[in-house]
């Protein structure tokens, strides 16, 4: 199994040979020196957040960063700790890794607790698998197996579509009353990387089989999709779509990301996922892509009732990174170039949402204007001004930088980091803000685990030398930014 860590912490090449040093590169360029200083600043930010968590909330899921209270919304297994574990490893924070390992060792994932199937999979299972991939420490795989076994009963619906929540001890699974029989597209279609990797690491096919059963249902329903775009609600009992609302944002987002990444994770051997991904991008371009007025910014809307709705949320900012990654693996040169051009335009839109605000932070939800408008008229109005420490724009900036080499993306990422430092840092950690339209926004007293797992990871990797970066042709990042190694499968897909 390829390990992430030698890429960062020296010693050997991948084939075990002692690494050599190119003497011509010993003189550090100004850009390299700047990157090193910026990377240290990101590590310092992670350290600050971890130290506050360690002082006030160690072993709990999260710290409330302005009051120092604890939050256990994810079962009390230590969400910040497990979700951020591979980030610590990449940063070489061995003392923190040792501390976290003790908590993982004591965790019992067969707890009498009704867990969110999706969130538990992407934060905990993904975190454990990435920690194992980075370290070869069998403890993390053992715990991943325990958790994977506890999650499997969620798939025990009539269709095999997983329920929203599952009791980790009893296996009782259900959808909540507010959502009746409905499954959410992003929740059922964004766990496949984790379950397939668990089967790959253990040699036990049952985990991948459960995840693939979901894709079997969706594959069979592809003719009922909206040109490759799937409605956000699906019946767990019949597999039928509950409405015709489609989006690349909340309730759907990572499903589309995982279509591409399932194909990549399995060594491009499962062709149906590439076909589904291609169809979804074609549908997205047909129904969702638009330009704002008067500035002509490219954005994604939603599609409901046969027409586009110009609502754009921050979660959609994963799309340019997805498009760029797809373009880099697309054999059709014209299609690849078109998708990369669209990725660049969407990346610029996402960055501008930060740069437009007095705080330098992006709002969570906006509504774009597409009607004719005079120059100087705002292109959008803010529907939710909150900034939740989200990673999606930084994720896309990172992928765009790695695939194009354009330093512009590094500079934009650094601007965002500085805004986070200025407005989100508390004496104990980091907090989201209530309204980015204020020059000094109020804090919301929340630091979700994805800040350490994703936001700071992508910032750290942005300023990592190319030769030491996690290679995008050997690893696939999950929706929670956990790098999992690509493997070959005999499936024809």
From TrEMBL:
Disulfide bridges in this chain: 317-350
Membrane topology of the entry: Single-pass type II membrane protein
Catalytic activity: N(4)-(alpha-D-Man-(1->2)-alpha-D-Man-(1->2)-alpha-D-Man-(1->3)-[alpha-D-Man-(1->2)-alpha-D-Man-(1->3)-[alpha-D-Man-(1->2)-alpha-D-Man-(1->6)]-alpha-D-Man-(1->6)]-beta-D-Man-(1->4)-beta-D-GlcNAc-(1->4)-beta-D-GlcNAc)-L-asparaginyl-[protein] (N-glucan mannose isomer 9A1,2,3B1,2,3) + 4 H2O = N(4)-(alpha-D-Man-(1->3)-[alpha-D-Man-(1->3)-[alpha-D-Man-(1->6)]-alpha-D-Man-(1->6)]-beta-D-Man-(1->4)-beta-D-GlcNAc-(1->4)-beta-D-GlcNAc)-L-asparaginyl-[protein] (N-glucan mannose isomer 5A1,2) + 4 beta-D-mannose; N(4)-(alpha-D-Man-(1->2)-alpha-D-Man-(1->2)-alpha-D-Man-(1->3)-[alpha-D-Man-(1->3)-[alpha-D-Man-(1->2)-alpha-D-Man-(1->6)]-alpha-D-Man-(1->6)]-beta-D-Man-(1->4)-beta-D-GlcNAc-(1->4)-beta-D-GlcNAc)-L-asparaginyl-[protein] (N-glucan mannose isomer 8A1,2,3B1,3) + 3 H2O = N(4)-(alpha-D-Man-(1->3)-[alpha-D-Man-(1->3)-[alpha-D-Man-(1->6)]-alpha-D-Man-(1->6)]-beta-D-Man-(1->4)-beta-D-GlcNAc-(1->4)-beta-D-GlcNAc)-L-asparaginyl-[protein] (N-glucan mannose isomer 5A1,2) + 3 beta-D-mannose
Biological process according to GO: carbohydrate metabolic process; glycoprotein metabolic process
Pathway as given in its UniProt record: Protein modification; protein glycosylation
Cofactor(s) listed in the protein's UniProt record: Ca(2+)
Binding site for Ca(2+): 479
Pfam assignment, any one: Glyco_hydro_47
Keywords linked to the UniProt accession: Calcium, Disulfide bond, Glycoprotein, Glycosidase, Golgi apparatus, Hydrolase, Membrane, Metal-binding, Signal-anchor, Transmembrane, Transmembrane helix
EC number, UniProt record: 3.2.1.-
GO CC field: endoplasmic reticulum; Golgi membrane
InterPro entries: 6hp_glycosidase-like_sf, Glyco_hydro_47, Glycosyl_Hydrolase_47, Seven-hairpin_glycosidases
Localisation per UniProt entry: Golgi apparatus membrane
Record flagged with keyword Secreted: no
One GO molecular-function entry: mannosyl-oligosaccharide 1,2-alpha-mannosidase activity
Family listed: Belongs to the glycosyl hydrolase 47 family.
Name of the featured protein: alpha-1,2-Mannosidase
Species of the source: Thecamonas trahens ATCC 50062
């Amino acid at each position: 199994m390829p390990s992430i860590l030698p890429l960062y912490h020296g010693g050997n090449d991948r084939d075990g040979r002692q690494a050599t040093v190119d003497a011509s590169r010993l003189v550090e360029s100004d850009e390299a020196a700047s990157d090193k200083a910026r990377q240290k600043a990101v590590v310092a930010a992670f350290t600050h957040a971890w130290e506050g968590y360690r002082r006030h909330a160690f072993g709990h899921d999260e710290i409330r960063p302005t009051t120092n209270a604890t939050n256990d919304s994810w079962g009390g297994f230590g969400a910040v700790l497990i979700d951020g574990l591979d980030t610590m490893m990449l940063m070489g924070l061995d003392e923190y890794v040792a501390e976290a390992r003790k908590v993982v060792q004591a965790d019992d994932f067969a707890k009498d607790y009704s867990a969110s199937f999706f969130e538990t999979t992407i934060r905990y299972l993904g975190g454990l698998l990435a920690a194992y991939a980075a370290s070869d420490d069998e403890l993390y795989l053992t715990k991943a197996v325990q958790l994977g076994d506890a999650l499997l009963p969620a798939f025990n619906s009539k269709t095999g579509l997983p329920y929203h929540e599952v009791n980790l001890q009893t296996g009782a699974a259900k959808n909540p009353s507010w959502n009746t029989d409905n499954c959410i597209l992003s929740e059922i279609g964004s766990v496949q990387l984790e379950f397939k990797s668990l089967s790959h690491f253990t040699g036990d096919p049952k985990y991948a089989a459960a995840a693939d059963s979901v894709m079997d249902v969706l594959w069979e329903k592809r003719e009922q999709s909206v040109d490759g775009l799937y409605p956000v609600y699906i019946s767990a009992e019949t597999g039928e779509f509950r409405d015709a609302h489609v989006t690349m944002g909340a309730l759907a987002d990572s499903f589309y990301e995982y279509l591409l990444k399932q194909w990549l994770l399995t060594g491009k051997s499962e062709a149906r996922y590439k076909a589904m991904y291609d169809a979804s991008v074609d549908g997205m371009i047909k129904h969702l892509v638009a330009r704002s007025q008067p500035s002509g910014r490219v954005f994604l809307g939603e599609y409901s009732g046969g027409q586009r709705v110009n609502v754009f949320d921050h979660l959609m900012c994963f799309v340019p990174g997805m498009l760029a990654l797809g373009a880099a693996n697309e054999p059709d040169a014209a299609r690849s170039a078109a998708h990369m051009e669209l990725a660049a335009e969407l990346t610029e839109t996402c960055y501008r949402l930060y740069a437009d605000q007095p705080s330098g932070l992006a709002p969570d939800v906006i509504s774009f204007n597409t009607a004719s408008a005079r120059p100087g008229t705002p292109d959008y109005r803010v529907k939710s001004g909150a900034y939740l420490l989200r990673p999606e724009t930084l994720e896309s900036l990172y992928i765009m930088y790695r695939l194009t080499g354009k330093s512009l993306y590094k500079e934009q990422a650094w601007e965002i980091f500085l805004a986070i430092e200025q407005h989100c840092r508390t004496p104990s950690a980091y907090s989201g803000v209530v309204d980015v339209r204020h020059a000094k926004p109020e804090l919301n007293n929340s630091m979700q685990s994805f800040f350490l797992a994703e936001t700071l990871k992508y910032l750290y990797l942005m300023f990592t030398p190319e030769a030491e970066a996690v290679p995008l042709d050997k690893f696939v990042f999950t929706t929670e930014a956990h790098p999992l190694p690509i493997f070959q499968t005999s499936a024809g897909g």
